[in-house]
Amino acid sequence: MPESTAKATRCSQRGKLSMSCLLRPHWKALTLAFIAVLGETLSDILEPWPIKIVIDNILQSKKLPDWLGGFVSHTFGHEKLPILNFAVLAVVAIAVVGAASSYVEKYLTTSVSQWVTHDLRRTLYNHIQRLSLSEHDKAQTGDLITRVTSDIGAIQDFINSALLGMLVNSLTLVGMIGVMLYINWRFTLIALSIAPALFVVVYTFTRRIKQASRAVRKKESELVSVVQEVLTSVRVVKAFAREDFEVSRFESQSLENVETALRARSIKAKLSPIVEVLVAIGTCLVLGYGARLALRGELSAGILIVFLLYLGRMYKPMRELSKMSDAVSKAIVGFERIQEVLQVEARVRDLPRARRAPRFKGKIEFEHVNFAYDEKPPVLNDITFKLEAGKVAAIVGPSGAGKTTIISLIPRFYDPQSGRIKIDGVDIREYRLKSLREQISFVLQDTLLFHASIWDNIAYGKPDAEPQKVVRAAKLANAHEFIEKMPEGYATMLGERGMTLSGGQRQRIAIARAIIRDTPILILDEPTSGLDSSSEQAVIEALDRLMEGRTSIVVAHHLSSIRHADVIFVIKDSELVEEGTHEELLAAGGVYSDLYRIQTCESAGELKEQPTAS
Ligand code: ADP
């Protein structure tokens, strides 16, 4: 239902998401369902009426009211038996109307709830996809998962069971009160004397249930977050043999979840019995007063019985309404939690005047760039440099100096607090994000592969790539050979994170991914770290082919691998401290030459140690 989804997205874009805005596209189905609700209500109200006719008009020989008497004597005749036939047939007719209405109402509400849920899920997911990295850094994945699933589920339950249910019950209640007032207004007022107490109880409990539901949801989110975090880092858990710790961490979270849920349950469980007792008090008042009147002969037994039947039916919607307070509270909490996400605005987004970027030549400039993650201390301090198109730059420096942060600013994963980043002389904020990112490829330290075939994994950044282009990219990336050897070649499915491949193979898939995108700018973040020397060689070879003719920025740990870079930028304590070629920087005798000396000493030491180790 794309039209309604578009409307749902518009609902959220206006700032606040509202239930009426979400339901509006389904007004036709809801109107039909409402008519069905009226049918249900009518049949509920009329259900005891045939009994009244049997008692009053057949057993006690009273006359039917004029409006009904005319119709019955015209169709069935005016004897007792035909009236009985009418009453008996009326029982079935009322039941059939009730059943048909109930079917239509349930089918339509389920359908509306499914579509609203679908719209809401899409809107929320779309929004989450568009949030920038700084918002994702703050959010817990498990919490977002719970919002997309359970919280939306609560709204679905509400539409399914409570939305029209509340309407049915309210209408039934009003109808019942009307009929009861018609039968005996004094009794009705007595019966309604418990209503204020009932209202206060339901209102107070609904507030408390809402608070409890909120706590339960929060705990559920935390639990899902723990599961999500551990499952995605299962290697680390195993490497550090922390399985027992993780199990006990999960157990304590789960126990907290149980406690919170039980606390909420105990509040909810108290509501129904209190309502039952209040209802019993109401019935007791009517019964006591009515029986006294009947004893004195001021009231017929038939009227009292019928009134009591109606009384039971009037309390039913009251009870149901109080029961629905749980579904309503959960839905309100779910709605609030969805709103919270929708109200987070992506900090990095297209400027109103942003335009589509032309194909870049690839000149990159940083001008007095200052950056900090949120309110944290600055990570980049007045960074200024220029990299000509087609050249290779390396960024080096101690760990935590800000190297990864620098490269994250080029595709606008984050925006700097001040200063400018330019590509081909134009501030990158002038370009539309999508068109900027389409021209930058990445090979990162840890390549994430999707649960999909090798074809799809290589073509992830260019899904329309032809098979021969995928094969060509794999060949250039030194990946073709090992792919061919796999059981199903390019059709082999990779694990959730490509666990079936070695680190070096994963990197070569990542390089093939970048080759196929054929972007003018390339960013490499320690792509060879952690690889053994033979696969490192294959990866370096593939990288050399990939970097040819593209502006490339390499964050490197091993300085030996970047010796041939056109320019090396040295970052230390958030600042750019040196800049030049390998030879120039060595000759300068500064930070770079110190780092280089330390590394060459280390590797010489390693070489010396190796014979004894083996
Ligand atoms: P390098 O790549 O040089 O090791 P980074 O650019 O990754 O350094 O990190 C620089 C500093 O920024 C570090 O102190 C790090 O803790 C901090 N940092 C990195 N990423 C984030 C983030 N997403 N949120 C908050 N702080 C971060």
The distinct ligands, each listed once, are:
adenosine-5'-diphosphate
Q: Count the strands?
A: 10
Radius of gyration: 36 Å
Decide which structural class fits the backbone. alpha/beta
Query: Share of helix among residues?
Result: 55-70%
Strands in their spatial order, largest beta sheet? 6-7-8-3-9-10
**Count of individual helical segments:** 22
CATH class of the domain at 3-342 reads: Mainly Alpha
Question: In percent, how much strand structure appears in the residues?
Answer: 5-15%
- Morphology call: elongated
In the CATH hierarchy, what is the superfamily of the domain at 3-342? ABC transporter type 1, transmembrane domain
Question: What is the name of the CATH architecture of the domain at 3-342?
Answer: Up-down Bundle
Question: Roughly what is the average pLDDT, rounded to an integer?
Answer: 85
How does the major sheet shape up? 6 strands, mixed
Describe the structure.
This protein is of the alpha/beta class and 614 residues long. It has a domain at 3-342: ABC transporter transmembrane region fold (Up-down Bundle). It is built from 22 helices and 10 strands. The chain has helices at residues 2-13, 19-23, 27-46, 49-59, 66-75, 80-130, 133-138, 141-183, 185-192, 195-232, 234-239, 243-295, 301-343, 403-409, 433-437, 454-458, 467-476, 480-485, 503-517, 533-547, 582-588, 591-613, and strands at 364-371, 380-387, 392-396, 418-423, 426-427, 440-443, 521-525, 551-555, 567-572, 575-580. It has a 6-stranded mixed sheet, with helices on both faces. The protein has a 4-stranded antiparallel sheet with strand order 2-1-4-5, with helices on one face. A hairpin with an 8-residue loop joins β1 and β2. α4 runs antiparallel to α6 (80-130), α9 runs antiparallel to α12 (243-295) and α21 packs across α22. It is elongated and about 120 Å long. The two termini are 66 Å apart. Residues 609-614 have low confidence and may be disordered. Bound molecules: adenosine-5'-diphosphate (ADP).
